[in-house]
Amino acid sequence: MATIKFEVLSNSQTAPIYLRLSVKRGITPRTKTGLFINSKDWSTDTKLPKQTKSTNKNITTDLIKLKVFILDKLNQSVIKNDTINKQWLEHYIDVFFNRIDENKTQTKVTYWIDYIIKNASLMENTKGGYGLSKSRVKAYNSLLKRFTEYQNNKTINIKDLDKNGFNDFKIWLFDIKKYSPSSAIKLLTDLQKVVRVASEFTTIAENFHSIKFKKVSTYDDDMNVITLSLNEIHRIKDLTITNESLINARKWLILACFTGQRGGALLDRIKKENFHFYGKDLIITIKQKKVNQNITIPVLPPVKEIYEQGLPYKISTQKLNKHIKTICELAEINELVMGKKRNKETNRNEKKLRLKFEYISTHTGRRTFATLHYNKIPTPIIMRVTGHKKESTFLEYINQNNDDHLDKFLDFYKTKELKERKETVLNVVNR
């Protein structure tokens, strides 16, 4: 006998409601219903919302109807000998809430990209949980736009995405649209994820699982690393400015150069309550979202000076980057350098020789921190501040090669040559 239970597994004010289906031992799929509730409004006795608000009563009605619907579909599927698993459960929950059409198998590629976007909160993420981040949803929106442009007036179905189908899209991205390798491969791998999601509901190409793409580092397209020298930082620091917004932005830029943090972490976590004493010195303790780890940052003299004067107030990353460029232009950081900048017309990054201040942003500060300390402080110690996990990635990030082995070999033979010369001189003297 099958049973259905509803569960709330977090203490959040917007806790997702789960449905657990128990068919028999070993078959107990559980997934989100797409409904949310304040955990305080959930009854642990009835396993339903407390009947204290009209919204809770409406949710209860939906859950009871959903239970009846799922049990009915289960009986039909048992007769047809269908596989009962998590995907089956997700499918019929989506059918119940009219997220998909049960009687019409959706096969369009664009439908399934849109399906992921609309059901982002129900999608598994790379951290082993559920819910896609804003950046991932943005990536799928970009994929939808690009793929719609690619197929033009045609309709491309999921089953069409075999090796040839993917290769045609790849050629369009590389040769027609001139995307960088990292951008193109990212779109292709996101499209692979779309096919995997769709495969739970519709037929896909037989050779799909043999499709592979070489992983491309984002740094492969970014070998012109833009950083600030100590001289340039001093020019920025000594620059006479009276505009309050620019004074504030200058503080953020110097903090970026001497804490090594990304724009988001810089603006959100370099704040007074994250400064702590470490003996007589100061440290900053933050948690980096991207790598999901705690980072302890030493408070270097330029950071301590800003801390004692007063930390800057928070503004948007976009405004900060605009102010930073203005500051660097005033400081005459205007040598010609090669870099990448987004073309507003094509909405893509383009490499071009420009005045250096045009490329400076909060991220420049992070790279500056890594570059300033490279070869002066052991690389693993720098990485503990920047949050890089692999030394190879860190070296790519600052456009350096790990060529320590060359120095060791050259030093060895130079030393050997000097020794041989000294021995020859001594032999001549002894004669």
In brief:
The protein is an alpha+beta fold and 431 residues long.
Give a description of the structure.
This protein is an alpha+beta fold. The protein has four domains: 1-101, no CATH class; 105-216, Tyrosine recombinase, N-terminal domain (DNA polymerase, domain 1, Orthogonal Bundle), CATH 1.10.150; 230-397, Intergrase catalytic core (hpI Integrase, Chain A); 402-431. 48% of the residues lie in helices and 14% in strands. The protein has 15 helices and ten strands. It has helices spanning 54-79, 86-96, 109-118, 134-151, 163-176, 181-198, 230-238, 244-259, 263-269, 301-309, 317-330, 362-373, 379-386, 391-397, 404-430; strands at residues 3-8, 15-22, 30-37, 42-43, 48-49, 275-278, 281-288, 293-298, 336-343, 348-355. Helix 3 packs antiparallel against helix 4 (134-151), helix 3 crosses helix 6 (181-198) and helix 8 (244-259) runs parallel beside helix 12 (362-373). The chain is globular, with a radius of gyration of 29 Å. It starts with a strand and ends with a helix. Mean pLDDT is 83; it is low at 219-223 and 401-409.
